[in-house]
Amino acid sequence: MKALSRSLRQLIEPLGFAAKLAWEYVESGSGFNPTSAQMQIDPYGFYERMRTRDPVHRTRIIDGWLVTRYRDVDSVLRDHGTFSNRTRVLDERLESLLDCDPPDHTRLRGLVSKAFTPAAVANLRPRVERLVARLLDSLAGQERFDLIGQFAYPLPITVIAEMLGVPPEDMDRFEEWSNGIALSVEPVLTAKQIKFMRHNTVALQDYFEEIIELRRRKPQDDMISALIAAEEEGEKLTHRELINTLTLLLVAGNETTRNLIGNGTLALLRHPDQMRRLRDHPDMLDSAVQEFLRYDAPVQLDGRLCLSPVEIGGREIRPGHIVISAIGAANRDPEAFPDPDRFDIGRQRTSHLSFGRGIHYCLGAPLAVMEAKIAFSALLERYSSMRLVAEPRARKQAVLRGPEQVMVEAEPVR
Fold it and tell me: Which of 60, 78, 243, 259 could pair with 298 as two cysteines, CB 3.0-4.6 Å apart?
């Protein structure tokens, strides 16, 4: 999960907000409103219009630019020299390796990267398989259940909690904390949202302080103990960086995977031909998960701060402006993907941008993919059919895209 625009996050003032949006429409005939219900429920029609009419769009709400073409998004995400992640932070308690550039980024990423190597992730596979089986066992006898609350959320939050070394039984507390802190990636927030986000940040980080004190006295074989050792060595990690890194890992470690499972399941349910295809050809699971990521990205927008003058699509971008890369739009760009709005689990050479590019490529990508593959494989093995019994409840966010609730009726395999 990448924080969108920490330099531009602002309190929504209704009159000023409306005036800036009207200004955008006058200038370009289009307006980027990340708080609109349509943008949060289904942004893809908006993305298509932007790619066609104004692919490098001047957005006045946040005093920046929105880019929607694949080639532009790819270029911005790769160029950390011109487009910085080091922006003014709304709350220093959330500043992490995602908000900095080398050499700090290199140092912080190096401290946690060993836990996410392919070999380390492979060692987690048996535990993830057991956890998936246990979660599905708990659903036995339930004709209807919430795929998110009872499966897609508890799976990744339990995995990352165990990796960090915090008790999984505190999972119910993690959910509210994670949901609150996840608001911090939105480009504009209300006063109520800011208060909720800060309250949950304090609560989670106070919790981590308690765990850290326990680990100082009695280290264990977990990530918290390893990071404490780095902190105590002096120059590698400050205490604030330790707390902020743990916050990032807990929140990002579940948000992306939860959305990947939720969005992927919805895509299959809404395309029964592809569901049948995957049942008949389970060897297509690898390409299916990549198509889930392309078709409906868990993270839709990614903001960077321009450091030096640059031209994108014929538009001059000045230092100090924010450039928002619309990952969801780039993944549906017909110049990069033939027939991009078609959901095709057999799609080949899918170089989607859902995990980013360059030095900020998602550290947890191998873990998220492994968890998703195990989850979907088990769902298809356990249930001979599955259908929606109610319209999914969408999250009211533009950056993190995924359903809050997906009520399904499932028929177990006999």
Answer: 259
